[in-house]
Amino acid sequence: MLPLDDVKVVDFMWALAGPGTTRTLADYGATVVRIESANRVDGARTVGPFIDNKPAHEASGLFGTYNSGKLGLALDLNKPQARDVVLDLVRWADVVCESFSPKAMRAWRLDYESLREIKPELIMLSSCLMGQSGPMSKFVGFGNMAAALAGFYHLCGWPDRPPSGPFGAYTDYIAPRFGAISVLAALDYRRRTGQGQHIDQSQAESALHFLTLALLDYAANRRIEQGVGNADLNFAPHGVYPALGEDRWVAIACATDDHWRALCSAMNRTDLARGEQFATLPARRKNRDELDQIISEWTRGLTAHAAELQLQGLGIPASAVQDSNDICHDPQLTARGYLTEIVHPVCGKTVIEAPRFLLSRTPANTARPAPTLGGDNQYVLESILGYNQDRITELVAAGALQ
Amino acid sequence: MLDPYRVLDLTTERGLLCGQILGDLGADVIKIEPPGGSPARRLAPFYQDVADPNRSIYWWANNRNKRGITLNLETNDGKELLYRLAERSHFLIESDNPGYLAAQGLGYGDLATRNPGLIYVSITPFGQDGPKASYADSDLVILAAGGPLLLGGDEDRPPIRVSVPQAYLHACADAAVGALVAHHERQRTGLGQQVNVSAQQSVTIATQANNLAYRIGADEAHRMAGGVKLGSLRVPLVWRAKDGYVTLGFLFGRQLGVFSQRLMNYLHELGICDVATRDKDWIAYGGLLLSGEEPMAEYERVVKLIADFVASRTKAELLDAALQRGLLIAPITTMSEVLESRQLQSRQYWQVLEHPELGRSFPYPGPFARFSAAPIAYRRRPPLVGEHNSELYRNELGLSEDKCVDLSRRGII
User: Fold this and answer.
1) What's the whole-number average pLDDT of chain B?
2) pTM over 0.95
3) Could you confirm whether A258 is annotated as catalytic?
4) Shortest Cα distance from A395 to chain B (angstroms)?
5) Which residues of B touch A8 (CB under 8 A)?
6) Predicted local confidence at residue B39, as pLDDT
7) Which of A35, A135, A208, B281 is deepest in the core (most CB within 10 A)?
């Protein structure tokens, strides 16, 4: 038995921040019915990487990873018959998750106030960029925009350049964890008290928990913060250095004076370890540019992985800056089963990312690929909701199942 | 919400956020530090730049809603006290190198024999086993090993990270999810287990599945200053406004093209572009560019129109336009602007915690989610070194005053 196999979820989420939450629940056994419409397919289906580099709704590795383990039900929510199906699903479910802008669920009369009338003990997670209330509650957009508003862009860049920002929809990487945490805590609370509840998740507010350090530093010290390249308050040297090959790099971080001395011996520059100029962390921070120059001269003659091996052999924190090819061959990630093979009904054998954490006694099950659009209509309506074939035929005729 | 549960937090500087998340949800989290205080208290920045274990902002950022005690786990008496605490706890979180606590007699197996229901959460750089399990680590090194680092920064310089450490926060958030999944299962079986978290694997999420590219035969994404490269198309995402920067998405396709259409409608109303430009097929535009049907020079001309428009407006004006017209524009916000955000203030986001020993209060980032039945409460500022020793050892474990004095004298608490 899987840990969550008694948990039933109706999933109106889309893009990444929402589906990432329900993916985790599905990995560990929850029955997740993912609702999509052919009139408005999930944008994640249109974003790569695509299998064999061919964009198609069923070939997005991104969608495939964020939605594996779920059942796919196609419903056109603008059809009145579809609403009845949703209400039956809500009666069946423990948890409803949605990540539209706040007005959408109200317009369909599927907001928490409406749904609790038919299911008082319902747990409902509403996740959107800025939260259900406030002057920006209807702000539409993607995780890169919430990342800009939360401060991540300003804190990622070089001091002499415009901010470059972290890669992609950064708050979408953070929000799914807090979404899953919230649902699991609410399930525990309901088990003990019988009470359901509504969870209002602002993805920007969740993500600010990854910037608490900078926010408190500003509040307490009024420090003017900005992106500082790869500099660090507590470590020097600390940076990304060029290696042999095109766009190849090695990351090195000396946390202690011992690390620094070991690095000097690796570079055959024990003279540096003896001098005043780099003797202490403050001195190395002060003379950082010169230090980085010296290290770069040494790393340039090595492959990134050779530098990593040599430095790790001396106990110095270092890693090749890995690209997708490296990651797919990384022995450590392979040992943890990071990429797991699945068989997709349209694309055949492919891979998705496995769960990031491992449970020792009750491992996840990732055998089921992400649903094709409406791929589980029959199963959901017949086996979960108990509809007979006449009812299903009526729904098809009404155009509700697309 | 989790108030019936007790959490022992043994983490080093790597794993602190996990316990804080459970503490925010109401669990009784006991932070256990070596006598003299956790190594995390030695990390900068410090309040008023005075290096002191009770003034580390690194510490403050990850330890609210916890009680704090000191305990020397390298002594037999210390271990005995930990066993007693573990017998009456539901979760234990640790982030030492793999094998360290087991060598101390405090591994999962040691504690599970005393408390089979215990959920033992291990947060490590690379995981409990495997060829890199004993690698030396840091935030930057983890980000390099897991994939996201290569994708960040300007293409003519080395890749860069976010200037505030992120890797272990990703690991800690995954650890909290894992702990609660295991907890749900424990309600049925009464049994605990070990949650094995690898920071390297946790940060893979920040590649947006681009790590898969090689295995599935797709192009890899590449970093580009303030934007992304999609094939031969350079898509700018960071634009210079009158008083700073904004992110603006000028994108195409069935879903994103709609936003570009709205933007071009707006620019036409403002007299910035002509009808022919407004009425291009913004849905199909990406394909037209890639096929060569639309010359790249024409795309660049439109990008320049948008850039000139953005440069003539303030961040606030652009945000208003985005809100009114549903455009993909968001200001690039500084920490001071985040603290002054009308949105966050209107939601009463900031939670002020008093640090009485400093005579100051500070606004902490507020609840990560709003729960209608059981709201998150900020009950405690981060503990001082050994602040709750007496409360815990005397009142809750029932040790005598003499015993506590003796343990303290021998450097155990």
Assistant:
1) 96
2) yes
3) no
4) 27
5) none
6) 95
7) A208
